[in-house]
Amino acid sequence: MSKFLGPVHFWLYHKIQFQESLIDALISCAVQKGWNDEDLTRFSCPDRRQLDEIIDETNIHGWLQTRIQDAETRYASLVLYLAGSDETRLKVLEQAAGDFGAAQNLQAATAPEAFHRLDDLLLDGMPCDQINRVSHSSDDVITWIQSADIHSDYWQGHGQWYYLLRQALIAGLLSHTDYSFLHKEDGSFHIVKKAA
After folding, report:
1. How many CB atoms lie within 10 A of CB 87?
2. I need a labelling partner for 136 at 20 to 30 A (CA). Which of 28, 87, 162, 181 fits?
3. Are 29 and 76 in contact (CB under 8 A)?
């Protein structure tokens, strides 16, 4: 990564901020459900200044990496704390993630455009990690694989919960488009045009 702030850094910071907003949405859901027997703001990030106001410009890469790890840790910790061993709570959080996604009113004219809109929002490590690798692309379908699972380590043995919430979030994000999201048993991910 560059030693100077560039578009890629602002793009990554936007993705971090999107995850922070998702955390806030799940906290709001918990408060509405009366699950807040503790102060849930400890899972939230109070400092939402612009990137150029907050970043350590002597360590851009390290600072962004630390922010990613912090956001991932708090997200997992919040869900694990709220859901515990209660599967019904996890379902409520899935619905809240889907509703949050739908509220973004994402638009896309093709499957690759939908993929890029998701990639502009979803936090998948540093750009140099190249986690999502496209294997097929046409106007109606895009297929990709993840080169590594960089999320599950934060979830204390419940990595599948991350992917349940992510699937609900993506379904919500795509709900205003003509496309749907599939995660197949072979581990591949697909955005496909909905049947007319």
Report:
1. 9
2. 162
3. no
- Tell me 62's DSSP state: H
**Phi, psi dihedrals of residue 177, rounded to the nearest 5°:** -115, 180
Query: Which pair of structure tokens corresponds to residue 115?
Result: 């993929």
Residue 141 structure tokens: 């379908």
Q: Is residue 37 part of a domain?
A: yes
Number of H helices, E strands in the chain: 6, 4
* Residues 56, 4: Cα–Cα separation, whole Å: 11
The predicted-structure confidence for 58-76, as pLDDT tens digits, reads as follows: 999 999 999 999 999 999 9
Question: 181: helix, coil or strand?
Answer: strand
User: What range does the domain containing 45 cover?
Assistant: 7-193
Report if pTM > 0.90.
yes
- pLDDT tens, residue by residue, 95-123: 999 999 999 999 999 999 999 999 999 99
DSSP-derived letter for residue 102 is H
Inside any domain, residue 105: yes
In a domain, 18, yes or no: yes
Alpha-carbon distance 109 to 97, whole Å? Answer: 23
What the block records as the tokens of 10 is: 């602002």
